[in-house]
Amino acid sequence: MENLNQFKELEKLLRNESQFCTEDGVLMKNAIVEAALALNPQLIRLLLTHETLRRNFFVDVDGVLVFDKVKFQKFVMNKRFLPDSYTSFKNKIGLIDDNGTFVSESREVVLAWPYKDCMLEGGQTKEDAKRNEIFWNETLAPDEINRLTEPKVLNNFRQYDSEGEHEVSKIMPTDNLIIKGNNLLTLYSLTKKYKGKIKMIYIDPPYFFNKITATDTFKYNSNFRLSTWLTFMRNRLEIARQLLKKDGTIWINVGEDGMHYLKTLADDIFGKTSFIGTLPRRTRNGKADVPFNFSQDFDWLLVYTNVEGEEKVLGRNVERQYFETPDFPGRPWRLADLTKQTTAKERPKSYFTMIDPKTGKGYPASEKRTWCVSIDTFQEYYDNGYIVFPDDYDFLNISKPYSRKFKDEDEKDEKKSAVISDFLIKDFLQELLFKSKNQDGNNEITSLFGRDEFDYAKPENLIKKIIEVATNEGDIVLDYHLGSGTTAAVAHKMKRRYIGLEQMDYIQTLCVKRLKKVIEGEQGGISKAVNWQGGGSFVYCELATANQRFVDEIEIANSTEELADIWRKMQETGFLSWKVQPKQIDENAAEFSALSLDDQKRFLIECLDKNLLYVPLSEIDNKEFEISKQDKKLNSDFYGIS
After folding, report:
1. pLDDT tens string 551-569
2. Confidence of residue 390 (pLDDT cuts 50, 70, 90)
3. Less crowded by CB within 10 Å, the N or C end of the chain?
C-alpha cells in the first residue's frame, strides 16, 4: 500500500512540470526516465521538495544527498505507475508478483535468443498481424518449453484417392500426409517418426519486408519486425534440420529485404560449410514506379544441407547420346572428355603425346590441361576399349582422343551427374529467370480454382526443377509452409512421398482440393512434362485442439456477453494459466466489462495455458480431451507406439 501511495504522489508531483507531460496532460514515462538518467536539475529539485520521495530516492553520504537514479528508473517503469485500463485491471486481480512486476516479465525466469527461451507463436493470421510481437507464452521456463514442444495428438483423419474420400483404417509408412495445425508444433511432432528421414525440404515462408504496412495484402501475416521474423524462422529451421536425412537439402525462398539476415542465421544453424548456394528467381517483369528508379524483380533461394561440402548431395539425370558399333556388340557407348584440369607440373606422367596405335598419329597433351590417364596406364585403358581416336569411326567428328563410357557402366554406377555451372546457366537458371514468375504460379491457381483463391503461389515448374536435382523417386519431400499446395502437387506428380503442413483454414478449400484434382489427372502445371495421368493417394489429419478452440472462439466473438459465456466454459473445461485466479476475475467482472472488446479478448487469451493449445500425445487417454478409440489407434500407427 505504501508503494501505491508513492506512485500516486509522484504522479501528482510530476504533473506540475510541462516538460514531463503531453499537451493533453498525459505523463510521458520515457521523458521522465531520460531526465533521471541525465540528472536533470529540474527533476531533482522537484523530488527534493517531497519528503517521502526524497527519503526514497536519495542517499545521505557524509551530509550530501546523492540521487539513486537506478532505483528511480525501476520505480517509474513499474506497471503500477501510470497504468492504462488494461494494466490496471490486471494489477487489481493480482497477476503480478510481490514487487509489483508482472509475472510474465519476471527476471527470475531465464529466457534464449533474442528473447531468451521464448518460442514464437506460429501466428500468420490477420489478427496476429495487428500485434507487435507474437509469442506462445507470456512466461517460459525450461520445463514449460518441453511441454509445449512434446508430440501432439492427431485427429480428423481422412484418406483421398481415385475412388474419393474415405475413413482411415490404418496409417501406412508410405502414406503422403497433409496436416493442419501450427507448423512449429507439428514439426516437433514429426521428429518422433521422421527424424533423419526427410530428403528435401522446400519452404516459402512469410517474407520479411523493411516497410511494415497498415494493410497487409497477404492471406497470412507478413507484418513482422526483423527480430520477430528471425526468431520465427530460427525456431522452425532448428527443428527442420533434425528432420533432414543425411545428405538431405533445404531450399528456402526468401525476399530481398530478409535474404542477407536469413543467410547469417542459417549459417549459424546449418554451418557455413553446409551452405550450397544462392539462386535468383525472377518474380516479375520490371516496374517503373519504384524507389531509386530501380526495379528489384528477384527473390532468392538459399540452399543448405546437413553434411560437409565434399558430399554429393545434388545431382541430375542427363539425356545422353549413345552409339552402337560392331566392335562392341550389345554395349552402347558415349564420348566423354579425356582431359583433366591439372597442369603438367602437377601430373608430369599425364603430360605426354598420345599415339594412335592404328595410325601412328600423335596427340600432344596441353601443358595446362593434361590427360586423365598416365603414360603408364594408357595401354591398359586402350586395350579395354576406353579410349577413342579421331580415325576410329567415320561418323565421329572429333579432332582429339576421347574417353569411351559404356551405358551399362553408367547405369550400374547410379550416380547422378554434377549440377555444374553450365547446366545452371542453360537450364536451371533459365527456368528460374524466365519460367518461374509469380504470374506463372497465379495462372496455375486461376486455372484450377479462380483468380482470387491465392496470391503469390509458386509455379510448379520451380518446384519440379528443385525436386529433380535434390531427390529420387520415393524420397520424402517436406513443405511446412504449404500455402497453395504447389510442393505437394508437384511431388505427387513426380512420384515422391510428401508431407505438407499448413495452419490456415484454406488448407481444405485450396490444398486438399488441389491434390484431389491432381489425383483425378488434371493437366495444368508440369503434368504434360512428366506425362501425369492421375492416381495416388494422401491422408489428411489435424492437430487435436484443446485450448486452441477457445482461442478461435474468442477471436470471432462480437460482444462482451459472448466472451463472458466463453469464460464460463474456459473455467469448466479449459486449462487456465497457473497465474490466473478465476475468483478474483469474477469479483471484478464490472471492470472487465469496462475494457474495450479487443482488450477483453486479449486478456482471456492470456488466461489460457498456451502449452495446452493442442492435446499432448502423453495425455491421449485423458477423458477430458475425448479422443476416440479409432484416433488412438491411428496415433499409435503414426507414432509407432505399441
Report:
1. 889 989 999 999 999 999 9
2. very high
3. C
SS3 87: helix
- Of 82, 73, 23, the C-alpha closest to 43 is 73
Cell matching residue 180: 493442419
460 within 8 A of 525, measured Cβ to Cβ: yes
Tell me the residue type at 504. M
- Here the cell at position 594 is 469496462
Say how far residue 618 (Cα) sits from the centre of its chain: 26
**Cα separation values, 27 from 39, 41, 72, Å:** 18, 18, 16
Going along 175-273, which residue ranges are E strands? Answer: 177-180, 198-203, 244-254
- Classify each residue of 421-450 as buried b or exposed e, where b means 16 or more C-beta atoms within 10 Å of its C-beta: eeebeeebbebbbeebbbebbbbbbbebbe
Q: In whole angstroms, what is the distance from residue 595 CA to residue 622 CA?
A: 36
DSSP string, 297-326: -EEEEEEEESS-TTS----B------B--T
In angstroms, the CA 82 to CA 260 distance is 41
Q: Which residue has the higher pLDDT, 216 or 605?
A: 605
- State phi, psi for 301 to the nearest 5 degrees: -115, 115
CA angle 476/251/263 to nearest 5° reads 145
Tell me the pLDDT band of 263, cut-offs 50, 70 and 90.
Answer: very high
CA distance 221 to 355: 69
**Cis (ω within 30 of 0) for the bond into 114?**
yes
Closest C-alpha to 10, from 52, 45, 39 = 52
Prior bond of 364 cis (ω within 30°): no
Calculate mean pLDDT across residues 175-181: 96
Q: Is the dihedral of CA 387, 390, 396, 402 positive or negative?
A: positive
**pLDDT digit string, tens, across residues 135-170:** 444 444 555 666 778 999 999 999 999 999 999 999
The model's pTM: 0.67
- Cβ pair 352, 365 in contact under 8 A: yes
In the structure grid, which three cell numbers stand for residue 434, read together? 524466365
DSSP state of 628: -
DSSP 614: B
Residue 421 pLDDT: 41
Closest C-alpha among 221, 205, 218 to residue 128: 221
- The sign of the CA dihedral 414, 415, 419, 420 is negative
* Alpha-carbon span 606 to 565, nearest angstrom: 17
Inter-axis angle of helices 2-14 and 41-48, to 10 degrees? 130
Q: Which of 388, 385, 396, 403 is nearest to 339 (CA)?
A: 403
Between CA 584 and CA 138 the distance in angstroms is 20
